[in-house]
User: Fold this.
Amino acid sequence: MDQQYFGVSLEKLLTSGGQTLYMVAWSLIIGTIIGIILALILVLCRKGGLAENRILYNIVSIYINIVRSIPFVILLVAIMPLTRTIVGTTIGSTASLVPLVIYISPYLARLMENSLLEINPGILEAAGATTWQTIRYFLLPETLGSIVLALTTGTIGLLGASAMAGYVGGGGVGDLALTYGYQRMNTPLMIFTVVVLVIFVQILQFAGNTISRKLRQHK
Assistant:
């Protein structure tokens, strides 16, 4: 018989934790790539930007505002047809990646946009480099510390969103708390999942602050 913790087998606890890490890690990687692209478009194509294009800027900005205004639970359900088209199902951790990426990429884009706009425009104008060189050697390196903090905030947001994904069959800690905690009136398990999430958030924030501080010191 499997060893039980809070009325749940150790295998189930480890599986749920692994599913949460899987969802957060992959959605963060994909969302960061998309978020950086969107942020660069916003910074470069804005009025007075190095590659001014107001039409593209407005399209991206409106898209980001629309997605960010939709609560994740509603977004999760609303894009189920798209999720089914891309993944072939709406159930499971892999299916949850679609709404998680759509949710986090605009969020990260705004955070990174704010970081990129911290750079003095005069530095970029004096650089005399191509757009790509400006991105590669000035924009990203100069704001790396701030971007790390943005990613830390995004990761914590993803952790909460991944827990909500459990309510529609996404698996992970959210599904564990709902199915084995709430529905079975297992209060100790629910408290345990909350404590684990709180500890994880504290570790993430500490790591993000430490890395960001070191990057700023080496600028």
Remarks:
- The longest strand covers residues 4-5.
